[in-house]
Amino acid sequence: MKLREFLAPERVIIPLESRTLDEAGAQLLARLLDAREVLDAYKLRRRAGEGRPEDVVAMSGRAFLLHYRSDGAGQLLVAIGVAPRPICQQLPGENEQCARVVLLVVTPPRQAARYLQIVAGFARLLREREVLEAVHAARSSEELVALDAFASYHLPEQLTVRDVMTDHPRTVLAETPLKEAARDMVRAGLGALPVIDEQQRVVGMVSEREVIRHLLATQVFSGVDARSALSPLSAPRTVRDVMSRQVMCVAPEQPIAEVASLMSNKDVDRVPVVREGQLVGFLTRGDIVRKLIGN
Fold it and tell me: For residue 102, what are the domain limits?
């Protein structure tokens, strides 16, 4: 299957007259809706309006990728816009990024595997200077869709979890004080930590969600103030007390497309990677997108 099969002139905007990335995303989404190829416009608009940080990825100054997973999409659709001047955006944890090309990909959860292949394909093509220059030079939507690069590029082969996962991830022991684990997550900028035992076996997962739930339970419902919320007398004190014990794990040999689809269907943001019961890596949806596009 070739990339051109996912492009259509009616889903291309040239020139993309937007001053901000938000404006560009809104224009591309409107173009998708105008083409009447979306199953549920209201549901897709609502999903796009959530503004999650992971919805936007910068392709190293080549393009911005906006991606939304929603049943409202109905099918996998790609829209692309080329601005006459660079659009700049400050992304969380990154320097300001600027690019003229903006890609919008919407997909229902069941097509997450195909979505990953398409993102990888566009990312690899746009790394080539000649291709990026040709995209910038396109004077119309028809001219862009007709570029030889899109017609000749076959979607890449499947990657495995091993190709994408983070090796030697940061972990926490079940008996670690909850306050210490929370500080570790904040300082490292992590949303969750796999919980292991002395044999490196995964016994649970602690995330910001569990920490917040604990704080709400101790401060709001118990009526205690912030200074006493984590005192020795106030409920959970260790990671074991609040961690999730039902954790979906994957193997390093599994196809990344298969795992990405599973994560999407189960609405899971991150999974430990285990071999013979022991933790060997960690995988997040953000990792998948960033590594596929080469960041």
Answer: 3-155
Same domain? 136 vs 198: no
DSSP 191: S
Residues 151, 190 within the same domain: no
Residue 46 has, within 13 A of its CA and on its CB side, a CA count of 7
CATH assignment of the domain containing 107: 3.40.930.10
Q: Kindly report, residue by residue over 239-254, the tens digit of the pLDDT.
A: 999 999 999 999 999 9
Q: Which pLDDT band holds residue 221 (cuts at 50, 70, 90)?
A: very low
Q: Which alpha helices (DSSP H) does the chain contain, by range? A: 21-34, 41-48, 112-126, 129-137, 141-145, 148-152, 161-164, 178-188, 208-215, 239-242, 256-266, 285-292
* 9 shares a domain with 102: yes
Question: 12 Cβ partners below 8 Å, 6+ apart?
Answer: 79, 80, 81, 141, 144, 145
Burial group, residue 178, by CB count within 10 angstroms (0-12, 13-18, 19+): buried
Rounded to an integer, what distance in angstroms lies between the CA atom of residue 102 and that of residue 65?
Answer: 6
> Which CATH number covers residue 243?
3.10.580.10
Quick: pLDDT tens for 137-157: 999 999 999 999 999 988 766
